[in-house]
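hey so i finally got around to running both of the ones u sent me last week. sorry it took forever, my laptop kept dying halfway thru and i had to restart like 3 times lol. anyway pasting them below in the order u listed, first the sequence line then the structure token line for each. didnt double check formatting much so if smth looks off just lmk and ill redo it

first one:
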Amino acid sequence: MDTVPAIAFLFILVICLSLHVHAICQPRDLTVVKGWNISSDKIYVACHNTTGRIVSLHITNTTFFSAIPQPICKFSMLTHLEIVSSHLSGPIPTCLGTLSNLIHLNLSNNKLSGKIPATLWKLKNLQILDLSSNELNGLGINNMDLSNQTSLKSLQLYRNHFNASIPPTIGSIASLTDLNLSSALFQGPIPHTLWNLSALQRIHLNYNNLTGAIPSCFSMLSNLVVLNLNRNHLNGVLPPSLGRLQSLELLDVSTNNIRGEIPTSFENIFSIRKILLYHNKLDGEVPSYFEKLPRLEQLLLSENRLSGGIPVQIANCRKLKLLDLSSNNISAQIPPEIGTMSELVNLNLMDNNIQGELPPSVGNCIKLEILSVANNNISGNIPSTLGNLKSLKILLLHYNKFIASIPTSLATCKSLRMMDLSSNGFTGEFPSWVCGLEDLLLLNLGNNHFNGYIEGSFSTLKKLQVLDLSNNAFTGSIINVIDLPYMKTLKPSKANLYRINRAPNLITFQNEMFNDIFFTVDFTLIAKGSSQQYEYVRSDLTLISLAWNNFTSEVPKELGSLEGLR
């Protein structure tokens, strides 16, 4: 072997090994890449087995570039180009449109600005285009010529600053299967040309400023699996024609201005898993036909104008995990059949006009993590069967007409983090078994008829942040009440803010199972006759309210040791 070629080969091999390179590459291409001086864990290069030209270039999490490097446009054989999360700014180079072999282009999660170059739409081999999470504008977006886009399957433009209407020409990309335009400041009506996207499976138009009615043309998209129109300004009614979507698994039209009844045709969407229609102006009754949807897992109809009762047939939704009918005008009683819903994780019926008692059968829903029936007219005792709910984390029964003592069976619910039983008619002594619930963050027994000494050691409640025992008839000393380890050790911090969703006196927690759904807990702290409101509630918030009781001792000096007390 000749000495010079041998040295050249060795040089190329060393570069390949240091850059995570697949196959031997031409020196002229590798010299450019090597000059960028990017660490090997942030760059991957693949070259053609025959020509040695770079065909795939992946760069992630680097701050080396301030803009997309122009030399990339000289890699004419490129089929895959990804520069992700690399703080790129400035415009997208028009020369990228000369990379005619490009199949996959991903420039997401940068700070790119300006318009989308018209040259990109001439890449007829392009299958995936991801420009999401940038600062692109909508200049010229409605004049896009997409006639060459016969291969594009995935178009990701979400989280940008387009401030324009959705281009009707998108309807000409017949090959498109995934379209995500969410959080991109799109406005105006949804174009009817989208009905031409016969291959479309997923469409996300959520978090925009779209107006007008939901086009019935969506019913023409027979392959549609996801239809997400959440958080817009859409009005009108739910098109009955959506019931033709036999492949649909997610329907999210929440947080709009949709009125009218839920169409009966929805009973034909047998594939549906999630129906999210909350925060609209829907009226009528909760449909009983949901029992015909065998795969239904989440049903969110909260914050509407629904009336009537909870249909008994809903208990036949055997896979239902989340049922939220809160903030409606639902009356009558909770059907005992609800206890047969063995997969139920979150049951939220708060802010209605529900009557009668809480059925003991609820204790059969052993996977339940959240049970909220607050702000209703429910009376009677708390069923002792709730002690069967070993996974229960949130129990909200406040603002009802419950009476008698709290069942000791709740002591077995060791996973409880929040328990609000305030504003009822509970009697008896302080439930000392509460001190065994070591994961408690919030305990509210205020505004009831409890009396007597407070027994038990609060020192076991190492995580407790909010304690409200106000407006009862407790007596004796408060010394053991303030023995709260969390409030002794907590230091002020600016971290971990929970933004309030509905009102300024709510703590917002996130349900771990449903990471797209936030659960708000309403509580009011009253001190010296006035209530304090918060625009933000910190995760390190600590509150104690013992007002309007019959405590006899002086304020103990130990109160000063609670450094974390707000």
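and the second one:
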Amino acid sequence: MNFTSELEKAIQNKKDQLQGKLSELQNSHDTDYSLILKLLTKQVEVGEAQSEVCSGQTDSEDLLTGINKKLAAREEQIRSLEAQIKGLQEQLEARSEEISGLSDQFKAVQKELTEKNGQLEEAAKGRTEQDLKAQETVEENAKLKNRIAALEKDKAQMENSCASLQDQYTDLKEKFEKDIAEIEGVPKLVLKINMLNTEIASLQGAVARESGDKTELKNMLAEKQKQLEDAEKDLGDKSPSSTSIKQLIAIIKERATINSDTNSDYLRQISELERELDEKIEALNGKDAEKMKAMIRVVELQDEISLLKRRLSKITQESTQELAAKEAELEKKRHMINELIAKDCGSNERQDEIAALQSEAKTLQTEIKSLRELSQKDIAELEKRLKKKEDDLKTSNEKLESLDKENGALVSKAIELQDRMKNLQIAETTLKQRTADEMADLKKQLQEMERQNVDLKAKNEELADAAKEAGACTALKDANEALKGDKAKLQDLLTSKENENKNLLNKIDDLEKQAAQKKDNEIHIVQPAIDPDTAHEKLQLSKDFREMTLLSNPLNVPEVSARYDIALAALAKTGFDSGRQYWEVSVVGKQCYNLGVAAETAQRKGPIRYNPRFLYWTIRLTRGDELIAIGKSQTKLRGQGTDKPTTIGVLLDFKKKEISFYDVGRRAHMYTFKDVESKSKLFPFMSTCEDTGVGSTPMVFSSDPYADWITS
């Protein structure tokens, strides 16, 4: 019994040890279930051993020996299990350290995630700002596109304006050259010098503005400067007052450069130069000094009137724009005040802000009133001076015409044409400069947009990196691509505008070439003057050389080879070899005449044979009262007893090789010579075939021909 009790006690002890190990294993962080099963197996085996002990109490000795052996084996197994448990404990400790390390890593990762979340929030904020910036860029691009559209419209208007200005300039220059050709002496040189100064100033401006090849412009400028030098030398040879005249022209030229900010200062400087001009004009002396004084006075008055008109236009435009800007700003202030009052709702929280805006609005109202009064005052002063100068010009023109009855009216007209041509050049230059300035401004804006796009691209790249880590960069990429697209479009627009501007300049060049070609297609009105060296000695010429009247007795005229000696005829001073030239001849009361065209090399001595073979293309009113055209055969144009033309128009068309005659009174075509050929110039021609000068009426080159009714 004692042995059994001890055995049971030992077994119970082992049970307790096993139970303790099981509890320890169950409380660990990492349970090894295979070991637990082994332990359970061993527990069962111990239980079986206990049963054997209980059943074998009768043979205690033998059984004890067997049990001791088994217990020894079991103890060995338990020691093995304990060693395994110790190993497991060591593993648990290692795992615990590993878990502690992982906990630190988790905290680090959590911190990193927090930082990433902060970066994402900043990225989102930056993306919002970027979106706003992109929106601003889109709005700026929209404004820029509107500017481009407006520029396209201005370009079209400029094309039309330049074409119109070029046509007007060509017509005026043609008339000016025609008029100045009939003026002789010092007046002609003064007009030529003044015109050359204007053209040189225009070319100098064109050279300064041209950014490309300037060779052609510089050559033209050098040619004009050489012409000016020759004209001034010629003036010095012909007039003792040439130095004073050149000084007067220089002062008039200097006056055009005055560009004062205030109107009062501008008028003061103009008045000072006017006094200097008056002194120098009055100091002119020598032959025809009074005529020259009157002419210079007309030139300087015409020039000042143009300056005053341009100044008046400039002040009116600038004051209108400034007033509009300030009134828009005032309206904006009033709108802001109304919005604040509505938001305030009587709480007076925004009272200070409202008061500040009201003060600013009041200041703007005062500025607008002052600006309006000042502009009205300046405009009134300019209009008053302009009216006075226009009255002075009218008086000076009348004085010039009274002093120089032969050329006075023509000189006044030439000065007026010269001034109109100058104004057209200024208008064309202004149009070109405005387009160039707008193109430069557009290019500058595009460069700024490109710079902003570069900055945006850099920010986008930063945001894209942050968004890529968070998996959210799609929107940024889209925005960046959109900006790239806008930039490409803007670059294309700039290239397009540059090409259009280049095309516009080419069109202007084409228009200038077309204007030259158009000169050959247009009908040029001619006011012929008779060449006294060709007129028969029995022909009396008027002072303006437009009329010739048959005399009964010959005049004492020099014998020259160019003069008709038998035919009672004369040629005009000017001949032609190109274009379409038209003039009219009055034959009121004439009983017999020949008129038309003669070649410069046509026979003038002896009897004249009026026939194209002999280089005369004429129609004749015979003594038998028949009007005939003399070609290869005679063609009757009207019979006896019918109404005779009182004025006959002659159209010399080199392009078609035709000479046509018109009854001006009936506006009817009479006859055309075809296939007109001549190796020399062709001149207006007329002759009378009456027997005596008694009662003979003059043949007259009309001073005011009109050809608009003639169809091509």
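quick thing i noticed on the 2nd:
DSSP finds eleven helices and 14 strands in the chain.
anyway thats it, ttyl
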